[in-house]
Amino acid sequence: MADRRSFWAWCLESEEPTDEDRAALAAKLSKRYGVEVTAEPVPSLGDAELRAPRIGVPDSVAGWCSTTTYDRARYAYGAHFTERVRAFNLDFPNPPDAVAHPRDDTEVEATLDWCDANGYVTVPYGGGSSVVWGVTPHDDLGPTVVISLDRLDRVLEIDDVSRAARIQAGVFGPCLEDQLRPSGHTLRHFPQSFRFSTLGGWIATRSGGHYATNHTHIDDFVESVRMITPAGWFQSRRLPGSGAGPSPDRMVVGSEGIYGIITEAWMRIQRRPVFRATAGVTFGSWQEGCEAVRHLVQAKLWPANLRILDPAEARRAAGLDGEQALVIVSFESAELTQRHNIAQAVEIARDSGGTVDDDDIRVDDGTGAPTGRGGAVGAWRNAFIGVGNGVETSLGLVDDTFETAITWDRWPEFDAEIRSRVGAALDDTFGPHHSLSCRFTHVYTDGPAPYYTWSGMGAQGSEIAQWQAVKDEANRAVVDAGGTVTHHHAVGRMHRPHGYDRQRPELFAESVRAVKKRLDPNGILNPGVLIDP
Fold first, then answer.
1. Is 147 helix (H, G, I), strand (E, B) or coil?
2. Strands 305-309 and 325-333, bridge-based pairing
3. Full DSSP string of 98-141
4. CA 70, CA 91: separation in Å to the nearest integer?
5. I need a labelling partner for 301 at 20 to 30 A (CA). Which of 76, 199, 395, 446 fits?
6. Widest CA span in the chain
7. DSSP one-letter code for 496
8. Rounded CA gap, 382 and 368, in Å?
9. How far is CA 466 from CA 5, 451, 461, in A?
10. Cβ distance 213 to 281 under 8 Å?
11. What is the pLDDT of residue 121?
């Protein structure tokens, strides 16, 4: 049997942490925090008790539908901390009754017609990397079918002249790049969930890749999109741009599965880069480094990467001393050397108070020399790639992130308010045993996208309640302070309370409801995401 995804951990089954791994971490946490931590054994799916399926799968769709315990457990949740805790504890109060794996558009359409005719709750599912409860109906709204796009995983056509490709929505990031590589192309969209997320999921959730400026959001790559709805097929015209009214693509991008199921898209691709340059610049303070980043992005050099790590984040992820902020700037191109660009960026950074030795400015003029592997930059890269395998699950350690965006003029006051309010929530929840740090994941000429990371040592068995207390305050704080409740993690069901419902204009919400009513008259698709079911 091929190696399967773990039903509870962020990895394959072969990569799951062992009981020994968990016991070692439990001992370390006990010593560090002076509390007793007990490592429960890694769960066995054979011990799970799922209610019997409430759906009889008809012969017309049975060839690609499953009601196995593995599929129903595996597709019961996304990948958020709270969901992994519940899966680890074999807590499946509302598993899907069936999971469909259609192999082409015809089978997707037949499955959706079957669900719509019977009023079954229908959840489109890409890679399941959602960290906002985006694929998990919280309430029992009746029989539920998950439609997984995992078998629609091919690059169907490449237009080398226009540099675009027609790609099926269920393809996972690594498989997509493997299919583009032989022709010398790349999509160049690398979210942190890249290994376990899909093109359709990126489009549906308005994913952001790890490139920090210029083309980073999936919006920038979509040339046209094809989607099946209960009302029929929806396909936009393939164009480089258009001023013909509101964009049909924009209605689909970020719709989070409430209108239909994205089956394929024409995506803008590019030649694979061969010229690169990178530098890591240190600053004596967070504020000084943030100003340098603003000057860099407003110079419009468009670096591939432009990030800043605050002193706490730079210590944790890049091995610095905890007193300095770290700015990482890098460039890449398939056609031209990046020596000039990195020299200009370093000059701006130094003029802004930054420090970088000439020997730490790495340039590759097409020889394949590493530019981002050594020193603090390499340490950060290694810490950033991947998200861990869940060894800490249900050991009392609670950790999460939240991201937002704000304009430069409001940034200093915004950051101070977030640190004050979320810091107070961490104090109230975890006492002295917590941390809060920040980095920029993306920067724009008019503002940054700060990404806050927090953790706390709580009480085993109470992790979800403790997480909720901090998350509720974080949602309230970012919207109160004028930011967006999410920059690239989508809305799901998690960001609606205290956040998205307050942020959007009510007339816009009514417009979304009207479009959904036209495309999904029976309201079967992903109820509770973006709007009430």
1. strand
2. antiparallel
3. EEE---SHHHHHHHHHHHHHHT-EEEEESS---SSSTT--SS--
4. 14
5. 199
6. 70
7. I
8. 19
9. 28, 20, 10
10. no
11. 98
What digits encode the pLDDT tens for the residues 472-515? 999 999 999 999 999 999 999 999 988 999 999 999 999 999 99
Q: Which residues contact 514 (CB under 8 A, 6 or more apart)?
A: none
Q: Report residue 165 CA to chain centroid gap.
A: 23
pLDDT at 389: 83
Report pTM. Answer: 0.96
Per-residue tokens: 166: 């027609």
Half-sphere exposure of 5 (CA within 13 A, CB side): 22
The pLDDT of residue 387 is 62
Of 432, 510, 428, nearest to 469 (Cα)?
428
Q: Structure tokens of 313?
A: 């984040």
For residue 521, how many C-alpha atoms fall within 13 Å in the half-sphere facing its CB? 8
Q: Put residue 353 in one of left, alpha, beta given phi > 0 → left and psi -120 to 50 → alpha.
A: left
> What does the DSSP 8-state code read for residue 172?
B
Long-range Cβ pairs for the range 237-246 (8 Å, 24+): 238/164, 238/266, 240/162
**What is the rounded CA–CA span in Å between residue 126 and residue 367?**
37
Tokens at 21, concatenated:
């791994």
Q: Which amino acid is at 441?
A: T
CA-to-CA distance for 149 and 104, rounded, in angstroms? 9
Q: Which of 438, 453, 442, 482 is nearest to 287 (CA)?
A: 438
Alpha-carbon span 172 to 494, nearest angstrom = 24
Low-confidence ranges of the chain (pLDDT < 70): 1-2, 385-387
- What is the token pair recorded at 39? 């490592």
Please tell me the distance from the alpha carbon of residue 363 to that of residue 370, in angstroms, as a whole number: 8
Token pair of 452 as six digits: 């806050």
Q: Determine contact, residues 153/99, Cβ cutoff 8 Å.
A: no
| Residue partners of 141: CB distance under 8 A and separation at least 6 | 121, 527, 533
Helix (H, G, I), strand (E, B) or coil at 491: coil
Distance CA 16, CA 499 (A): 34
> Which residue in this structure is represented by tokens 């599965």?
257
